[in-house]
């Protein structure tokens, strides 16, 4: 979920080339909550700064559902800008958009990391 169509397009291409199946996109928090409930993805890549709801609230709502997906928060800002809100959100972790990589995603999904560059 990201309000910038250009980043959604980039993320889709990147994720598909990294072997992930992309089942949907959303440009707002409300649309993302609905899409997550309908599509039931395993993973959600979620921008923290959305126009209607912030990513922390969207994460909380998605994670309250049955069989919730893993949520990876992302932003153009650094993780340190959000303090402990990332950890408290229930998300698997955080990746800055500029640091989006297969290794980073896999580390958060299946490794020991909680966020990249959280300080």
The parts where pLDDT drops under 50 for at least 5 residues are 113-119
Beta-strand fraction estimate: 5-15%
Mean pLDDT: 87
Could you state the CATH homologous superfamily?
Response regulator
Secondary structure tally, helices: 5
Shape: globular
Structural class: alpha/beta
Write down the CATH topology.
Rossmann fold
Assembly state (oligomeric): single chain
If strands are numbered along the chain, what order do they take across the biggest sheet?
A: 1-2-3
- What top-tier CATH class fits best? Alpha Beta
Portion of residues within helices = 25-40%
Number of strands: 3
Integer tally of domains: 1
Which key phrases capture this entry?
single chain, alpha/beta, 3-stranded parallel β-sheet
What's a quick, concise take on this entry?
With 119 residues, this protein is α/β, with parallel strands linked by helices. The protein has one domain: 3-Layer(aba) Sandwich (Rossmann fold), CATH 3.40.50. 39% of the residues lie in helices and 13% in strands.
Overview of the molecule:
The chain has 119 residues and is an alpha/beta fold. It has one domain (5-110): Response regulator (Rossmann fold). 39% of the residues lie in helices and 13% in strands. The chain has five helices and three strands, in the order ααβαβαβα. It has helices spanning 5-17, 29-39, 55-63, 85-88, 102-110; strands at residues 43-47, 70-75, 93-96. The chain has a three-stranded parallel beta sheet with strand order 1-2-3, with helices on both faces. The radius of gyration is 13 Å and the shape is globular. The protein starts with a helix and ends in a 9-residue tail after the last helix. The model is unreliable at 113-119 (pLDDT under 50).
């Amino acid at each position: 979920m990201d309000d910038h169509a250009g980043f959604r397009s980039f993320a889709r291409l990147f994720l598909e080339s990294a072997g992930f199946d992309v089942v949907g996109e959303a440009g707002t928090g409300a649309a993302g909550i609905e899409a997550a409930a309908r599509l039931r993805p395993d993973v959600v890549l979620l921008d923290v700064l959305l126009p209607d709801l912030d990513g922390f609230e969207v994460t909380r709502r998605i994670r309250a559902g049955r069989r919730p997906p893993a949520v990876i928060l992302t932003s153009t800002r650094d993780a340190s800008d959000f303090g402990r809100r990332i950890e408290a959100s229930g998300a698997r972790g955080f990746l800055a958009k500029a640091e989006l990589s297969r290794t980073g995603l896999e580390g958060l999904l299946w490794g020991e990391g909680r966020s990249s560059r959280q300080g």
